[in-house]
Amino acid sequence: MKIKEVNENLDVIAKQKDRYKFNVSRSVGNSDRVQSTSFVDVSDIYGRVEDKNTLVRMLCESSEQHPHIISILGMGGIGKTTLAQFASKDSEVINNFDKVTWVCVSEPFDENRIAKAIIESLEGCTPNLGELESLFQRISRSIAGKKFLLILDDVWSDDYKKWEPLHHCLKNGLRGSKILITTRKESVAGMMESIGIIAVKEMPNEECWLLFRRFAFSGRSQEECENLEEIGKKILNKCKGLPLAAKTIGSLLRFKKTREEWQNILDSDLWELEECEKDIFGPLLLSYNDLPFKIKRCFTYCVIFPKDHNIEKDYLIKLWMAHDYLKEGNKVMEIVGQEYFDYLASRSFFQEFKKDDDNNIIGCKMHDLVHDFAQFLSKNECISIEDDGLKDPIINSSYHEQVCHLMVTIHRDYSFPNSIFSLRRIHSFLCNFEDSSDQLAPNILPKLFGELTCLKALTIGSMVKWSANVIEDIPKEIGKLIHLRYVNLRALIVRKLPEELCGLYNLQTLDISDCEVLEELPQGIGKLINLRHLENDGVWSLRYMPIGIQRLTNLRTLRLFVVSGGGGGGGTDNKACSLEGLKYLNIFGELRIAKLGNVSNVDEARRSELKNQENLLHLSLDFNTDEGERTNEDDEVLLEILQPPLNLEKLVIRNYRGNTILPNWMMSLTKLKRLTLSTCMNLKHLPPLGKLSSLEYLYIIFMWSLKMVSNEFLGIESDGTSSSFIFFPKLKTLWLYNMFEWEEWDYEITRKGEKEDDITIMPSLVSLTILECPKLKALPNHLVQNKALKKHIAGCPLLGYN
């Protein structure tokens, strides 16, 4: 009804606009943001000395770029402008330039206003010019023969078309001229082609305290200061290293006379304080308003996680996807989610990034004040609560009616909050157990699933990989949650999933990772026609994949595919999907094929058409088996047939029984960066891996029959010929482990017509690890002579490392 009323009002307004012939104006008014200046009393600046010294050094050093561009990057209120002011007043900077010019840019990026401001600073008067061409000509003449420093504070626009003409006219100054910008957006620093970037971090607590007490304790007696110091330091913790917050809250406390008033500030949430809403959240609001509408929703949703929570990026994106936040025409939702995450990260809404071995971001945190700001914006639509057993966290709150997305942390020995059953409209329920041994009472989940029927996202498994949870049964009532799109059952100790799960036709993600005792997937899994992600990494107990899996044509993620043992696998003949079923899927990212030794018909493997999985980047081939021993030749034939796509970046071969690893396709993997050969028991010679042009990481583990590494490892033929002068050109890390019979590692470099000095081996190697190779006698010369190489060697007594 409210929406209907709003629409009727809009219709009336539209009719009045037409009646009175109002025109829609697209002009942009003047910014009402506070204009910054270069004036500052450096004695009032606390901390930032190290950052200032780094910036001064960058401003005064020579550079090939002309003019040299430096960026100061950070979230609103972190102190970017103060750092620029601090450095601009340094005597070394002042003496290094003929002219220092300060322009507050803000939004919009008005070229005329900026050009006039630059001229006014250079010449001392405002030019009476209207054309942009004339203004730029004037700037070019004014800086001719001068070494200048131009500081552009608070730059928001990353539109290169607006920046390019100004940049060109600034090239007329003397070499050594610099441009310093401050911005919240990483894209601005990139667009301006910054040579140096200073990412401003939170202030250390002791420096923040000095700034805080300057304002909070101003005008107080020594006795008052001592009396309030302890509580003041507790209040300072709310600032989390943000100078603007320390200054704002300190200024607020200056007029609070009694300890009780200070205690009230300590007990209050920041969004409840009017001064904080204006002065602390104001700068953050500018960043928020700069976001596209759809990304604003994604940002405020993040407040469902408690403060200081490690947010897993992939988990967050799948939650966004479950709530339709990522729909953009025909674009792939997962790609849109990655773009949205990167957008927020580049604008300092996230911090403390966690990265994988390939330097890809896999997790992050939110600054506490950014979290407070998001809570302020969400109006308690998204909340996280803790059940501490003292009071009901929902009923005793003022936000019962607003809650749409909830994360609850259950502490040990406390009962499940009954008030949650009354939240029938919530769309997200994320249950976080403080201890992995905690579990819900048997009647909780059936009741929960029966009441919260609007849920789109459900987590009752672990939020962190490798953390177990003792929930042993998923009740059939889960089938009532027909709107579910995301289900996290990660690390539960369930042996079987209910068939009712297969009635959740809207389901996009099913996460059963690390459910280490789960033996079967539901037979009706083929009904989940919208399933995009089956996260089943670490479910080693699976006996087979149900035949319906091959009907999931929307499936993008399948971490583990288990080859059935056929008649010997517990009567799975008619229920199991064969390896051939992979050809019906389009797998993205990574796939591990386990129990390849169960393949009884190589034609089945050939029909899997693995090489056509163009979006598969990481492949693991595990040749273990449920059956008895197989012949070495079986594995060699199977490996040849299982040709991966040519754009593969990571390959793992485990439990391989062949005598050689040299399929015809291996040397064609020109994009392969990581290779692991593990537990290849019969392998006596390593393949010619030195030919792999993109290989960066190589791990060789448990080669119990290997005695010698020689020319074949590099790719030099037995007659000494080779097509290459450089072997392992990009290899950075080499790991050799548990090779108990390995004795010799030497190359007989006898290339026809070439000298040994013409051969280059592993020029990029930075890390070498050799563990438990007790018979290895010596290292090759290229490793001994590499003094910069970081070596970790143990369990190799003949090399002098016990």
Question: Describe it for me?
Answer:
- The protein is an alpha/beta fold and 802 residues long.
- Among the domains are: 42-199, Rossmann fold, CATH 3.40.50; 205-281; 294-367, Winged helix-like DNA-binding domain superfamily/Winged helix DNA-binding domain (Arc Repressor Mutant, subunit A, Orthogonal Bundle).
- Helix content is 28%, strand content 16%.
- It is built from 23 helices and 29 strands.
- The protein is globular.
Short description:
The protein is an alpha/beta fold. Helix 2 (49-60) crosses helix 3 (80-88) and helix 9 runs parallel beside helix 11.
Q: Could you list the spans in which at least 5 consecutive residues all have pLDDT below 50? A: 26-31, 567-571
CATH topology of the domain at 42-199: Rossmann fold
Oligomer: single chain
What would you give as the CATH superfamily of the domain at 42-199? P-loop containing nucleotide triphosphate hydrolases
Layout of helices and strands, plus pairs?
Elements: H1 2-19, H2 49-60, E1 68-73, H3 80-88, H4 91-96, E2 99-106, H5 111-123, H6 132-143, E3 148-155, H7 160-169, E4 178-183, H8 186-191, E5 196-199, H9 205-216, H10 222-236, H11 243-253, H12 259-267, H13 274-279, H14 281-289, H15 293-301, E6 311-312, H16 313-322, H17 333-346, E7 351-355, E8 361-365, H18 368-378, E9 382-387, E10 405-410, E11 428-433, H19 444-451, E12 457-459, E13 486-488, E14 509-511, E15 533-535, E16 557-558, E17 560-562, E18 589-594, H20 602-606, E19 616-622, H21 632-641, E20 650-654, E21 674-678, E22 697-701, E23 708-709, H22 711-714, E24 726-727, E25 733-737, E26 744-745, E27 760-761, E28 767-771, H23 781-784, E29 790-794
Parallel strand pairs: 1-4, 1-5, 2-3, 3-4, 9-10, 10-11, 11-12, 12-13, 13-14, 14-15, 15-16, 17-18, 18-19, 19-20, 20-21, 21-22, 22-25, 23-26, 24-27, 25-28, 28-29
Antiparallel strand pairs: 6-8, 7-8
